[in-house]
Amino acid sequence: IYTLPYTTLFRSALLAGCGGGSDDASAYERAVDLANAKEAEARALAVDTPCNDGSQCGTVAFTVPTDPCGMWIYKPYSLVSPTAAAAKQAADEQRELAARARELGPLQGIACIAIFKMPPALTCVASKCLAAQ
Question: How many CB atoms lie within 10 A of CB 99?
């Protein structure tokens, strides 16, 4: 099950309606903002060039901090780019920050279907890492 990210107003209303105060809402919103900022950083670092073949391609994974089930989203990137290690580290940190946001969120305890989304198969086309079609 996938939920779309909530607007700040909707998140605040949910927290207030569920007994959470403005401090809870503020902590949750800050946690979501931190996770989103770290994702933007990781995406900028996870460049999809260069590559010579698919073995030089990998994926970084993110989770949506407002999704109570934490499904992973993958982005292909070049394992041989100068920023590859920093991209992986930032993506790992993003998932940790997103997990913290979910712990603070209004939808804790939601039953989630046990589904694991596999990373896409990767290929290198014209020196660019891409998800195989």
Answer: 14
- Per-residue model confidence (pLDDT) at position 117: 82
Among 80, 93, 89, which residue's Cα sits nearest to residue 129? 80
Model pLDDT for residues 26-59, shown as the tens digit of each residue: 999 999 999 999 999 999 999 999 999 999 999 9
Residue 124, classed as helix, strand or coil, is strand
CB 51 within 8 A of CB 57: yes
C-alpha 19/C-alpha 125 separation (Å) is 52
Is residue 122 classed as helix, strand or coil in its secondary structure?
A: strand
Whole-angstrom Cα distance, residue 53 to residue 66?
36
